[in-house]
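Tokenise the fold.
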Amino acid sequence: MKSYPRTMTDPPDLASLRLLVLVGELGSLGRAAQELGVAQPSASKRLATLERRLGLVLVDRGRRGSVLTPAGVVVTERARRVLDEMAGLLAGAAALRASREAELRVAASMTVAEHLAPGWLAELRRTRPDLHVGLRVTNSVTVARLVREGAVDLGFVEAPGPLARLSAREVAADRLAVVVPPGHRWARRPITADELARTPLVVRERGSGTRDTLDRALPDACPPALELGSTTAVRGAVVAGVAPAVLSVLAVALDLADGRLVEVPVEGLDLRRVLRAVWPGGRRLVGPAAELLAVATRRSSMGA
């Protein structure tokens, strides 16, 4: 494998970081380049420049695609934070320019925000095309805090257990799955809950609903191999071969269908959970918040 000497130079540009993140998400340099609207040779050169600047090999390029190295997984997670901060700066500037605040303020945990909320909001806007919606994406603990503080009108969480001072309603069902790359030793056999608990995993940060569900299911689990701040980063680490992970089937459905990841059956372990809408306790939802809750509940009952 190639290596680069340690180097001190200018920080990488945002376009290169965005390219690296897309390579991790899509598993292909060509697809990442297409997504950015640049030629693949230009994207390859940009990625090589990024590796030289950081003094790290970030991507393994093979005939079946491009896979992040373990160092690439960590750098990608930090790159995503940089990009998120920049997106937040730009969004904040746009908010300052806007003459009105959001008429519906929503916060959602990452699984809900990435895989369910877009469909709910699209349906709501078909009946309320002039509705201005602000959506904050964070972990379940922060969603609950924002709702309690009155910073948002409605929240969606995936964390199990009671939620103090909040009213809640189930809006969807979900299931967590143990996933590994196809070459992993678990890819061809089931495992036990004890075997899973003895194995260091790639996990989400504390406060996420996925981490909370896993900790409740395996209270005596060994320390994690790696702790990351987003589902996408955890997924990329598994694809790179860092360690197994436990993720929502909503988040890995395409990877399982395409064969990039394999689900491992676990004997004696139930990882089903419910996804809930939450709002301040003792209050009756009205207006757009009530309408969005109705959409989410109806689509759940229809299996959408």
User: Anything to note?
Assistant: The first helix runs from residue 14 to 26.
